[in-house]
Specification:
This protein has helices at residues 2-58, 66-76, 89-97, 106-114, 116-125, 144-169, 173-191, 196-219, 224-233, 241-259, 262-271, 275-309; strands at residues 329-330, 335-336, 338-342, 345-350, 365-366, 373-374, 380-383. By secondary structure, the protein is mostly helical. The longest helix is centred in the first third of the chain and has 57 residues, at 2-58.
Length: 384
């Protein structure tokens, strides 16, 4: 009989033990959450202190700070649209991507002329080496001033790019160079803010300026003096992501700790939207930017070669002695760039992550015979 009682008690004991295990687990989790919340409250003071230290170390006089000019523009002028209302979508893309004349787009030429004071102020800001926006812009994620500034900077970039393309078409080459220098300097100013969102917007703005320099180098009337001016504009071709990401990680983590509730930070870690995971995703964008910069340096030396010889080189080997070795390594594919002669111009592109030469194709195309989609390539075309 006692043995039967033991047998009967076994399931009960098993259930009882499981309840104890789950109860212990819940207690441990709750204790961990409480400890984390307590640590977060204590840590908030050190976060404030560290942000204040970084802000103090970055401080510069207003007379040396390009941010004062950008803020002044924000106060005095309405935002610039990415595409003026009177331009069709096709015309908006064309005038942004290619040189155009006032005879072809008289209304746009007049519209840009009316905004010359904004362009002049932006050109003035491009003469500043330093730019500092206060951290208060970032510690309030929905800060209207910050959102307005991002929108305004994109509008200024498109205004400068369209104006530069008009300059190229009408022979004002030095003016066009100055405007593209202004765009790239605007991106540099954003890079000086150790915050990921600023860096991403800087990438986008820089790409517009670099595309404009491709056009100048490949098509415009450039003397050696002008080529040297463009060379001075060009961003570094080194892959400095380790240093950049380390700085952004510290500051963005501090800002996240200051602005987010501790439970929100736990949720971010769980969902993969933590600062570290976002930086990891951003690395690919950084590599594309470095690739663009190296292509720009290659095209610069290609243009020098053409100026000396009257024609484009047959291969990149003919200019390799004129640029650092890393310039010819595509950081996206880890392989060399592809260069091909084509009539009186050339093609330059990256083979992309798959390292397959797909003749510079990136977008999906349609087979005219079957009307079926052709598998897209992942090449990145720099020129044309």
């Amino acid at each position: 009989m006692p043995e039967n009682n033991k047998d009967n008690d076994a399931p009960h004991n098993t259930k009882h033990n499981k309840k104890h295990v789950w109860l212990a687990f819940i207690i441990v989790v709750l204790a961990a959450i409480i400890a984390y919340l307590a640590w977060s409250v204590w840590n908030s003071k050190s976060v404030e202190q560290r942000l204040a230290e970084i802000e103090a170390a970055r401080a510069i006089p207003d007379s040396e700070n390009a941010a004062t000019i950008y803020n002044d523009l924000l106060e005095k002028y309405d935002p610039i649209p990415l595409r003026p209302y009177f331009l069709s979508e096709d015309a908006g893309s064309m005038t942004l991507d290619r040189p155009w004349t006032a005879a072809d787009y008289p209304e746009l030429a007049e519209w840009i002329k009316d905004r010359q004071p904004i362009i002049d102020r932006l050109l003035h800001a491009s003469g500043f080496d330093e730019c500092r926006f206060p951290f208060t812009d970032y510690t309030y994620p929905l800060n209207p001033g910050k959102i307005n500034r991002f929108s305004a900077m994109r509008g200024w970039t498109f205004l400068l790019a369209r104006a530069a393309n008009n300059d190229i078409a009408e022979g004002r080459i030095d003016n066009a160079i100055a405007k593209h220098r202004c765009i790239i300097q605007l991106a540099r100013h954003l890079y000086q803010q150790p915050v990921l969102l600023e860096y991403l917007i800087g990438f986008a703005i820089e790409s517009v300026g670099v595309d404009g320099l491709y056009i100048l180098l490949a098509e415009a009337d450039l003397t050696e003096s002008r080529i040297k001016t463009i060379e001075q504009i060009q961003p570094t071709t080194l892959d400095n992501w380790a240093d950049i990401s380390a700085t952004i990680y510290e500051v963005d983590s501090l800002i996240s700790n200051k602005t987010n509730h501790p439970l929100a930070r736990l949720r971010a870690l769980w969902s993969g939207t933590s600062v570290r995971s976002l930086l990891k995703r951003t690395h690919d964008i950084h590599l594309r930017t470095v690739s663009n910069r190296r292509a720009l340096k290659i095209i610069t030396e290609l243009r020098r070669y053409r100026n000396r010889h009257g024609f484009w080189p047959t291969t990149l080997d003919e200019i390799k002695s004129f640029a650092p070795p890393e310039v010819f390594l595509d950081p996206i594919s880890g392989d060399s760039f592809v260069y091909k002669l084509a009539d009186d111009t050339f093609t330059l592109y990256s083979k992309g992550k798959n390292k397959i030469d797909e003749d510079g194709q990136l977008d999906v195309t349609v087979d005219p015979n079957t009307n079926e989609y052709i598998e897209p390539g992942d090449d990145r075309l720099f020129w044309p």
